[in-house]
Write a structure and sequence with these properties.
Layout (H helix, E strand, L loop, with lengths): L6 E11 L3 E6 L4 E6 L3 E6 L4 E7 H6 L4
Antiparallel strand pairs: 1-2, 1-5, 2-3, 4-5
Length: about 70
């Protein structure tokens, strides 16, 4: 279980998903990023792939999102 404050959310477009990771397009940085599913807390997307992802702050820092 992850404690409050250890999560980071961002609006994104979902491009691809494998058994172990999800490829997102981050609107803010205009970058495509692979996020390991082990670091993903939740994903919400519409039929077009637009939505938001909530991940651990650790992976968000690793990917230079924060």
């Amino acid at each position: 279980p992850m404690a409050e404050g250890e999560l980071y959310s961002l609006a994104c477009k979902f491009l691809r998903e494998t058994d172990s990771a999800v490829l997102i397009y981050d609107y803010a940085t205009q970058e495509e990023l692979w996020i390991p599913l082990s670091q993903v807390h939740s994903m919400h997307k519409d039929g077009k792939g637009d939505g938001s992802i909530t991940m651990t702050t650790w992976i968000a820092k690793q990917k230079h999102l924060i």
